[in-house]
Amino acid sequence: MVALQGIPIDAAAVMSSVLEGILYGFSVLMCLGTIWTFTYKRHMQDVNRPIAVVATLLFVFSTTHIVVVIIHLERGLVTYRDTFPGGPVAFFADVTQVTFVIKNAIYTLQTLLGDGVVIYRCYVVWQSAWIIILPCMMWCGVAVYYFSQASTAEIENFFASRIGHWVATFLASTLATNVLSTGLLAYRIWIIERKVSAVCTTRRKVPILRVLIDAAVLYSVALGSSIICFSLWNDGLYVMGDLIVPIVSIAFYMVFIRIATSQNNQHYLSNVSRGATETEQRKLKQHPMQPLIRRPNDSKSSLGDSPKVATHSLAY
User: For residue 140, how many C-alpha atoms fall within 13 Å in the half-sphere facing its CB?
Assistant: First the structure.
């Protein structure tokens, strides 16, 4: 095989497993936070079921992926360490291993699900099917291209092989789909908030636009790092490939938790202000304001000479 730059591939496998385990822990906590946010003090009929389904699927894919990664690592370092031709390095470089194929299939499904959610958000905001035609074509192209190339078995040089070209195309298409969909979504929200801000002076504590951009940047940085590793023929690509799976989940959960938290805070503040207004109205009924009446024959009827009346009038 051609000598590749960067860390050894067996070290990359260990590193990716450890880092993915850390990110998976964060994604599990954020998944629980998402479920709690949308179910706390709510009836079952009020729960947003599509969100619950997507959150569950992301959790299932992430869990399955890390389990397969651990099995793949155990086979390469323990089970077939002394029996596989070439040792662990050759085992982890073999893209025809069942565990390698399975974990990449899960990665593809996770990516397609995340991109599909972004495209759906774009459709909901624009309320037009025409605006998402190009993102949908790119999304379908990613799916078709993966499943048409999944059975390729070239292992002499991954980065120069047909599978390597698929990986580069897949990463570029996924990045383009995410950037395009998020850009359209952010532009539409920016236009709407700009129109609303001209009428209403109240601002959100956590702007939706900033939340979406944060999630898109997180995902785009991971994809961009993968593309850089591929262009440099660096085995860090294996690390980033495993890390993207929990990153997709974290980006999804981050959006919904922050938006739901912001909505709950606004709902709480509106209830508090409504309650304060009702209390003030009850006080006004119990202690009606007494008007100041200037009597022509009474020189002590002015505001300056009647502090008690003036104070009582301004108290409520």
Answer: 5
